[in-house]
Fold:
Amino acid sequence: MEQARPTTQRAYLLDALRGFALFGVVYSNFAGLAFWMMLPPEQKAALPGAFLDEPLEWFRIVFIDGKFYSIFSMLFGIGFGFFLEKGSDGLLRFYRRMLVLLVIGWLHLRYLWAGDILFLYALLGLLLPLFRKFPDRVLLVLAAILIISPIAVDAVVVLTDGRIDPVAPLLARLEALDAELGYTTFDALLAMPGGGWDEFVAANDRTWLFRFEHLVAGNRPQKVLGLFLIGLWVARRKLFVVPEQHRTLLRRTCIAGTAVGLPFCGLMWWSGKHLGDIPAAGGLIGTASSALGVVPLAIAYASGFALLWTKDRWRRRLTVLAPMGRMALTNYLLQTIIGLALFTGVGLGWGTHVSAVQFESLALALFIVQVIWSRWWLAHFQYGPFEWAWRSLTYGKVMPMRK
Structure:
C-alpha cells in the first residue's frame, strides 16, 4: 500500500486520499471482524443498541462497502504509473515490491485474517506491467469490460442453472473439508470469539480457502484489475499532479459518478434485503447493482476529494490524513491486529457481543487514534514500521529509519 514518492504536492494529496480510504476500510472490516455479520437476526436484535443496526447497515452498504477498497485499488494503479516514470529500474523494483507484498499478504491471510486484500493486490500487481504500453483509450475500455464483467459471469451461472460456475470447484473443496473434519468453516469462525489460541489457529487453518471462494464468487479479481488500469490512466493524465488544472474533469466525474453510483448502491442494499430468499434473481440484481454502483461512487469520492484539495482551507484540513496514508500498510495491518485483540478469544472476546453502533464506534475511535499516532510517528521516523520492512526487503538492505 506504500507507493512511490512523487513530488511533494501530489504525494500529500495521494497520501491524504489513502488515509481517507483507510477510514472506509476499518468501518467496513469491523463488521466482519466483530463477527456481527454471521449472527442470526434474533441474536443481533438482543444486543445493546440493536435498534440502530438497520440504518447503520444501510449506511455501510450504500456509502462504504466496496468504495474504499476501490479507491485503494485505483491508488495502486497510480503508484504503478509513477514507477514507470523511472524506466527499467523502476519496473524491476516494482516486481520486487510485489513479491515482498505477496509474502506479507499471504502471512496476513493465512495466519491472521481471511479478509486480507494484500495478497490479491500483489498477485494482480504482477500483471500490471503487461499493460504499460497499452494506449489510454484501450486501458479505459479494458477497465470498463473488467468492471462490468461480473454481470456476464453471474448471468452464465444463472442461465446454466449452476452447471457453469467458477466457484463450484472451491465450494466442493470446502464441502469435502467440512465433511472430513465433521464441522463447517462457519462453525470454526464462530468459535473464535469465545475460544482461545487453539480455536484461532483452527479457524485460520480453513478460512484462507474460504477467502479464495469469496473473492471468486464476488468477482473481485477482475474488478480490482480494472481499477488498477483506471489508476494507470489517471497517472498518465497526471490528474493528481496539479488538480487545479483539471477542475472541470474532476467536477464532471464527481457528479456523474454520484448520479450513476448512488442509485445502484441503493438498489444493491434493497436487493440484498428483499430478494435474499430468491438466490438467482437477488444474486444477479445484486451483482449488476454492485458492478454499476460501487466503482462509479468510489471514483466520485476520489474526484470530490481532489476538488476539495484545490481549495486552500480544505487542503489544510485534509492534510491531517496524509501521515496516516504514508503509513497505509502499517495502519491496515494494525486495524486487523487490534480488531482481533478486541473481538476474538485470544484477546477481549467481544465478538458476537457488540451491535453495529458499538463496533462502528470502535472503528471510528481506532481511526482517530491512528491519525494522531501516524502524525507522531512520522515526526520521528522516516517510514512506518511495516513500510520500513517492505522497503528494506525490496532494496535488499536495511534502510535508515530515524529522521
